[in-house]
Amino acid sequence: MAGWNSHGSRLSSNSSFSSTPRTVTLGRVQPQPPSTRTIHCNDSDANALTRFAEVSNFVQPNGILIRLTWSSQGNSVSTTKYNFFTFLPKGLFEQFRRVANLYFLMISILSCTPISPVSPLTNVAPLTIVLIVSLVKEAFEDWKRFQNDLAINNSLVDVLQGQRWESIPWKKLQVGDIVRVKQNGLFPADLLFLASTNPDGVCYIETSNLDGETNLKIRKALEKTWDYVTPEKAAEFKGEVQCEQPNNSLYTFTGNLIIQKQTLPLTPNQILLRGCSLRNTEYIVGAVVYTGHESKVMMNAMNVPSKRSTLERKLDKLILILFAVLFTMCLIGSIGSGVFINRKYFYLGLEGKVNDSQFDPSNRFVVFILTMFTLITLFSTVIPISLYVSIEGIKFLQSIKFINNDLNMYHAETNTPALARTSNLNEELGQVEYVFTDKTGTLTRNLMEFFKCSIGGVSYGTGITEIERGVAERTGVKLPEDRRSANAIREKGFNFDDVRLMNGAWKNEPNPDMCKEFFRCLAVCHTVLPEGDDSPEKIIYQAASPDEEALVTAAKNFGFFFYRRTPTTIYVRESHVEKMGKIDDVCYEILNVLEFNSTRKRQSVVCRFPDGRLVLYCKGADTVIYERLGEGNGDLKKTTREHLELFGAAGLRTLCLAYKNLSPDMYESWNEKFIQAKSSLRDREKKLDEVAELIEKDLILIGCTAIEDKLQEGVPACIQILSKAGIKIWVLTGDKMETAINIAYACNLINNDMKQFIISSEIDDIREVEEKGDPLEIARVTKEAVKTQLRNCIEEAQQILSTVTGPKLALVIDGKCLMYALDPSLRGMLLNLSLNCSSVVCCRVSPLQKAQVTSMVKKGAKKITLSIGDGANDVSMIQAAHVGVGISGLEGMQAVMASDFAIAQFRFLTDLLLVHGRLSYIRICKVVTYFFYKNLTFTLTQFWFILQAGFSGQRYYDDWFQACYNVLFTSLPVVMLGLFDKDVNASLSKRYPQLYVEGLRNVFFKWRVVAGWTLFSVYQSLIVFFFVTRCGTSPQTSAGKMFGLWDISTMAFTCLVITVNLRLLLCCNNITKWHHISVWGSIMAWFLFIFGYSGFMTKSDRQENVYFIIFILMSTPFFYLMLVLVPVAALVGDFLYQGLQRWFFPYDYQIIQEMHHHEPDVNVRAQYVEVETRMTPEEARTFALAQLPSQRSKHTGFAFDSPAYESFFAAQAGVHAPQKPWDVVRRASMVKRAKPTK
């Protein structure tokens, strides 16, 4: 809604009414709006107030009548961030929220004052360039959004005008309008579905624009409105919709339709949401309920929670340190200036009255203050103004060029590439220590197949699952061969083999009536839509989940073929029911549907048989169904539970089936309550759940189903590699404990060498108290039991961890225990135990618990976390972690839309983390430290000059030198460093996953690393300044003159540009043509600039300082000597340090470089013979990748062999082996390695 405001007219304070309530003016009070709104359909006059200034009255408890208005802006939408008037002020506000930009704005203002030693352009020019680049980027992105909005708002839709349809733009739609949407068209607003060309008032919609789900969903109009199909009939429709206020809940709707003095309840089944499309229906007629930004899809159009990487937060601390360095330098200079300004220095001309307060010896405090401001402007370059822009550009290019285009993360079967939905967290991928993953659809394929079942206490199904084979292999048990019967049926969703149930053989079983109810429950209790011909071979089922499709497919193959559906009936073709070979088409009237949700964990339907029999069928989780079973059948319950445990141990997903016969009186009494709850406008969902509890009890257990969901390709290998990389993986699933444990074994997440801690609610103490049914006692006993189990596990874990060769630890905990373990009083114990475990499996957890566990580790462990999932139930977990990864699977795109990165398969996590994440982390670390180094080096040369110049604030460099240093002469090489630096290739990164540990330890951005760059910055600035200054004290020009200030500073600046650019090459692991172009191009850019800048003179006195200066310098041999001597002397320390570090204290990646640098850098295609070679699909794929053009890179060379091979491989094996001093000598005396064959 557009908002709630007090009534526009001012009411007199003397206004009175004979009855309470009375009307008052609200002033600044902001009351809550009424919870409902009224819409007059097809009545523009009645809606006139609604559209512009509807007055809504409601009475407070104190009897005061409050009058509110609300307004609607029509159906036009805008997703832009700015408009023509707000772009500049809002854009600048966004830019100056950054501390660095705000700082340079202040510096620019200071540089415009008389106390500034530099021209305002020195600081204004770089700031302006940075702001222009950022604003142009913002404007370009917003312009694309504007163009998209324009196209959408001007799309045409048919609207009822009188008794005919007229096409108008979407933006002109108003609440209450009657519209017609044709097949394959998009719904322009949230509509109340009135009628369609399909029989029985049904239509089919696709919601992929909302949740990514491509399976069709059925919507059904109220029977009272089926006739309003033609424009003549639609013109007669006059109704009043009372509904909830606009909200962002896509799957709920509460409202009533008042038509012909009859109130009919409205549900989500009668609502067509904006953004969805119409399928398999010629056209539909609907009434507009919510428009524009009030529509549900627009109210969901919010950004994913903003996330900042850990390195960025540490960068803020580094900026603060630079502020401290700046303040220290300015303080030293100001104090020095206050001391140095003295009349005894006659050459300063300070005798008598001094007009300039900054040099007045009689007021040293003023001298101190003014000099402080002067030096702040002079030393402002210590803060890198282009740092943030450069990093943003680098990370953006890393995302779109490297991550999005990586063919190793491209899934050919679904044509799905990797997608970086944000570039802010690239380097965070290189420091992930905890991965939280869903199971279904993430570790598994989410391709469900009906595999086994239990009916009436008898287990059916002879197949052997992947998990069972893994368990047998692990325990050394030999399984019989899986021999399928000759007539076994195999199709999508059905992989069942047991002759006792197929082809009507179930009639010969001991419990044929129970089998019949089992099959009917599968065929009737669902929300599946059939498509295509009504033959078993050609029909296509559109299901909300793969589980439902598998169950209906199973019913079809068992002889109960569901082939048609209307809003109130289901048609099933039943075989062999009366006698063998007989086929009957049976119509079941669906009276009520109690839908599945994550809270209920069950679904029920009330149906009427052709003979009038009323039956409730229910299917759901075993824990939920067992709680609602009637008395008796104890043996059946026990046997079925045993089968459930066996199916769970085999890694199968289970559901329990039950039914209940209803008497007409009981049903009529219950149905009245159901209709009343369904018509409620307040807490409708809660009331429906309460009514469902009244009928979903005293159920009769039929049996259970077991569905197999196979592991995705490459999951075990991926988890094994990630574990070697030091990443701890937690599985958070809703499956039973036995299923979760066996899946963990199959994934290599848990093995027999691990010590397993199992915290379960399935213990005798908890069972006993649950049988008594006292909820308070159950809660108390369960919490104590969880506390005891946690304490015992921690004590045992401490004993194991105290040993040198103890096994790794694994924790398994179920959802009920987890609920109590997450209590603040026990959370510390859970965190302490789980952080010491290599693997953690949480089963039977809810979506909320997934997010709670993720947040607990994120805040408690202070480590980088990553959550990966594929369904809507994983969204909260994905958003709670530092990095969220969505898998574009079969459960829609909600996880992807909430994520930071999207991939198609879990195994691609290896490339995302170990290759792209690790390289991004190393590159960004180098970019930040190099920025810090080059700016500090430049500023320190200015600082050394201040010390030599009597702390006067005299600038050392020309203004334009200072302005262009960061923007032109040193900017491009650092971008190339952030894009192309690579220590080892992708295959070696995955071959040696231990390299990833350097990111976990934050090896490349520790404070000692920053301190090292600082020391070399100080050293190089001293070399540049004092070499040039001291060597230039004697006559050097052809005229016998000494160099002046601007000669010396220009020479020093030239040496500085060469030095810092060559220093970048020293920190590169590989040098490509782009490095050469950027480094030598930047140096060349300086010479071209100085040739042009000093080649002509204007009236500007500042330019006279450097007029013709480069030509004078180049006429002296001293200039060329300095160009060679200064960079060599400045960089020799770095060269020696890097050599000694590589020799005696190598990084892990340097060891790998030494091991493989003699291997020829040839294409992978050389490893395969041409056409005659028979390649596996994976080899063929690798070969295809190798055909792509690649950028060859030259290594800088490894001048020093590393002596630390043994310690590196010992660390891989988990054994501590410190380096030995004699290893150095032995390595140095190694024989030559064999040269690669050419």
Automatic annotation (TrEMBL):
Q: What is its EC number?
A: 7.6.2.1
Which Gene3D superfamilies does this one have?
A: Calcium-transporting ATPase, cytoplasmic domain N (3.40.1110.10), Calcium-transporting ATPase, cytoplasmic transduction domain A (2.70.150.10), HAD superfamily/HAD-like (3.40.50.1000)
Region feature (Disordered): 1-40
Q: Which GO terms describe its biological process?
A: Golgi vesicle budding; phospholipid translocation
Question: Do you know which InterPro entries this protein is assigned to?
Answer: ATPase_P-typ_cyto_dom_N, ATPase_P-typ_P_site, ATPase_P-typ_TM_dom_sf, ATPase_P-typ_transduc_dom_A_sf, ATPase_P-type_domA, HAD-like_sf, HAD_sf, P-type_ATPase_IV
Active-site residue numbers: D438
Membrane topology per the record?
Answer: Multi-pass membrane protein
Q: What class of enzyme is it?
A: translocase
The entry's localization annotation reads: Endomembrane system; Membrane
- The P-type ATPase N-terminal domain sits at 73-123
Can you supply one Gene Ontology CC term for this chain's record? Golgi membrane
P-type ATPase C-terminal domain location, by residue? 896-1146
Cofactor dependence is on:
Mg(2+)
Q: Which NCBIfam families match?
A: ATPase-Plipid, ATPase_P-type
What name appears for this protein in its UniProt entry? Phospholipid-transporting ATPase
Q: Native species of this protein?
A: Carnegiea gigantea
